[in-house]
Amino acid sequence: DSEAIAVKELNFFKNAGGNTVVDASLPGIGRDPEALVRISKETGLNIIMGTGFYVGETHPKEFDSMTDEEIAALMVKELEEGVNGVPAGYIGEIGISEIFDDKERRVLRAAAIASNRTGAAINVHINPWTTNGIEAADILLAAGVPCEKICISHIDVENREDYICELLKKGVYVEFDNFGKEYYIRREVRNSGYGNFVHDTERVTLLKKMIDDGYLKQILLS
Questions:
Q1: CA–CA distance, 123 with 2 (Å, rounded to integer)
Q2: Nearest Cα to 173, choosing from 74, 82, 57, 90?
Q3: Could you give the CA distance from residue 182 to residue 199 in angstroms, rounded to a whole number?
Q4: Mapping DSSP to helix (H, G, I), strand (E, B) and coil, where does residue 157 land?
Q5: Torsion of the alpha carbons at 165, 187, 54 and 93, rounded to the nearest 10
Q6: What percent of the chain stands above pLDDT 70?
Q7: How far apart are CA 217 and CA 212, in angstroms?
Q8: Residue 103 burial by CB count (10 A; 0-12/13-18/19+): exposed, middle or buried?
Q9: Are 81 and 87 in contact (CB under 8 A)?
């Protein structure tokens, strides 16, 4: 919650040559539009704010009685009119849990409607130990979202090559975004079925293979 720390850390990024940050916070998980404006002005960096809704447990209760169109309208309004004058620049990160349920499917369909209406790209958070990115991508593609407007995140926890290749063949972006997580997770605090993250050396080896296979332009790193 410290803007001073955010500014300090973002200046490391700026001094290394970075100029644009995509903020993946959303309502329910700490998004602060006014703070993003202040931080952008202080650092001189572009900051792109997201719109949409994260995993099901963060959704507002009102969603129980709302249609896909009504939820989409909330996103469209933030993209076109902004939040207190601060416009969103993309949709995401839309949250998909380990148990991908109908509440999350509804928000994903709403994100597709909003994307088709505005042209905004969509970033999708996937529980990293699952392969739910396949269904998520299929829902968006079936709704008419162009593949180049879709990014599936967190695909690099266990280096599931078949899973990643299946996504790449659909034409969507995939995000290798777990660099640096080379630490041990005590067995007793792991959820069932959750293992350790692969090492960065393994991640880079797989990246090299994907690049050699012709997928360089669909790979995002974070």
A1: 25
A2: 90
A3: 6
A4: coil
A5: -40
A6: 98
A7: 11
A8: middle
A9: yes
35: its two tokens: 């703070």
Compute the mean pLDDT over every residue in the chain, rounded to the nearest whole number: 94
Contact at 8 Å (CB) between 174 and 218? yes
Angle subtended at Cα 93 by Cα 70 and Cα 14, rounded to the nearest 5 degrees: 135
Ramachandran class of 46: left when φ > 0, alpha when ψ lies in -120 to 50, beta otherwise: beta
Q: Which tokens in the block code for residue 145?
A: 């979202």
Helix (H, G, I), strand (E, B) or coil at 66: coil
* Pairing mode of beta strands 46-51, 150-152: unpaired
Contact by Cβ (8 Å): 95, 131: no
Question: Could you tell me if 153 and 123 are in contact, meaning their C-beta atoms sit under 8 angstroms apart?
Answer: yes
The amino acid present at 183, given as its one-letter code, is Y
| Six token digits for residue 7 | 């500014």
Give 156-215 pLDDT, tens digit per residue. Answer: 998 999 999 999 999 999 999 999 988 777 777 666 667 778 999 999 999 999 999 999
